[in-house]
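User: Here's a structure from my thesis project, written as structure tokens. My advisor, Dr. K., wants to see whether a designed sequence matches the one we expressed. Can you design one independently, without my sequence as a hint?
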């Protein structure tokens, strides 16, 4: 195990990283590396030059570009419970001679099936569940801090939507260093408790769906127009808010890999508790999850703005106009005064 301590494993989405850590690997979320790159188009172009079609998801192409440019030779690909395109991406990685580790979540949340999946992954990585459970305990404080950040966002109004997004989404791999993640987040929490809260009259929004390609621009634009995100659905799930007394329970409570109705069992109570005025549903172009918008609109009794993104890493003028119109509608519906009058 010791000869693997410095070995990097690229992950295509949130996975049971406790098993990777138990095996001595360093998990790196390829999505986070891609979207934080100063020139993500460069990474997409690597994939397109290799033959990936134009109408393929940008995240898939970005992941490929990261792997090729950085020379990552081991990738854990989630084949069930994430993106259907990952299956073929995995085959391309194999064609390139890379070491691919497949992992499949159960088709529905069941702790017994989850335990079997974890044991199979542990066996493939030459470790065992007992060591992985010790890794889970070591990550408990970091996950607890991430959930404290979420509380400070929606309950206390001391943390903005972008900060909430950034730190929760980063809990997929803890930025490659759980101890440093814990130190920096703990410092941020101390600093944020000294802040002046956001105004009570700002619109309260939920963000549903996978993280967007224009996330950094989106949250700031919403706040500049008198609205803030108090619920980041998938990002919050990355931090394992429901935890549990074992890895099997923790990843059974993690809603993202399962059906949209399992996700709704988490979403609906949060919308009520966080007093959400309206919802943004982000869908990635060419992604099968976009069809879920039909179900969300049927099951959620709130105004919903559906935004689609592809390769625009900043909000287009068209998207800005749609957002402004949506916020104006919410103000009329909730009788929140216009932003201009609240600035006077």
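Assistant: Designed independently from the structure alone:
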């Amino acid at each position: 195990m010791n000869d693997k301590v410095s070995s990097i494993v690229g992950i295509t989405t949130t996975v049971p990283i406790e098993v990777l850590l138990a095996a001595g690997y360093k998990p790196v979320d390829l999505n986070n590396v891609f979207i934080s790159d100063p020139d993500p188009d460069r990474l997409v172009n690597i994939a397109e030059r290799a033959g990936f079609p134009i109408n393929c998801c940008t995240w898939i192409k970005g992941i490929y570009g990261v792997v090729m440019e950085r020379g990552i030779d081991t990738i854990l690909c989630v084949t069930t419970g994430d993106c259907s395109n990952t299956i073929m991406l995995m085959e391309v990685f194999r064609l390139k001679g890379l070491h691919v580790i497949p992992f499949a979540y159960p088709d529905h949340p069941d702790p017994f099936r989850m335990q079997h999946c974890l044991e199979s992954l542990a066996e493939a990585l030459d470790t065992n569940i007992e060591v992985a459970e010790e890794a889970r305990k070591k990550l408990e404080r970091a996950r607890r801090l991430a959930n404290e950040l979420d509380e400070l966002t929606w309950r206390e109004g001391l943390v903005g939507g972008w900060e909430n997004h950034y730190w929760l989404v980063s809990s997929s791999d803890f930025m490659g260093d759980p101890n440093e993640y814990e130190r920096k987040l703990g410092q941020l929490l101390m600093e944020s408790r000294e802040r002046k809260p956001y105004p009570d009259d700002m619109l309260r929004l939920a963000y549903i769906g996978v993280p967007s390609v224009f996330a950094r621009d989106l949250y700031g634009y919403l706040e500049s127009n008198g609205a803030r995100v108090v619920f980041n659905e998938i990002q919050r799930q990355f931090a394992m808010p429901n935890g549990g007394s074992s890895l099997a329970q923790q990843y059974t409570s993690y809603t993202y890999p399962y059906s949209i109705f399992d996700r709704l069992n988490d979403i609906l109570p949060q919308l009520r508790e966080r007093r959400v005025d309206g919802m943004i549903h982000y869908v990635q172009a060419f992604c099968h999850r976009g069809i879920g918008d039909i179900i969300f609109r049927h099951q959620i009794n709130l105004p919903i703005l559906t935004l689609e993104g592809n390769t625009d890493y900043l909000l287009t003028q068209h998207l800005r106009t749609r957002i402004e119109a949506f916020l104006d509608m919410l103000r009329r519906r909730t009788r929140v005064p216009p932003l201009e009058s609240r600035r006077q």
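When you compare it with your expressed construct, this may help: The first strand starts at residue 8 and ends at 11.
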